[in-house]
# Entry
Amino acid sequence: MVEDLRTDVTKTRKDGSRGRLRIDYGDHRDPQAAIAWLWKFLDGAKTASELYGRALVVIAAEQHASRLVVSTSQRTPAARWSSHKGYAEKALRKLAGPHLPASLTKLERSVKRAHAAYEQAQADARTSDNKPSETERSA
# Structure
């Protein structure tokens, strides 16, 4: 789903050779495409718990993504929420902290594993819905 927003850019050097591959997520000064993608991601939730999970992913990504994927020139400080004794930040750290990998490579692997597990669970649910129950088989 992130692929909808991501663009791979390779500039051509003055000598005609190809430059380094750069991943672009759009213009940070005009975030309309990113906002549209964000709402599409949140609207994709089918249950309340899935919406809660996706919202938590968005909040955690806002807090941590700049360290991992945003180029240095586009980094902005993470938003800080004012809350009594910092409870909001502590709650996010408690919920999302154990799931945050130390590097971008680990993050990509973690996302792929979670996606594969989700797809497998969906496939298992679909096949279990199609199987006849014990009473139907004995009849």
In short: The mean pLDDT is 77. DSSP finds five helices and two strands in the chain. Strands lie at 7-12, 18-24. Residues 104-130 form the longest helix (27 residues).
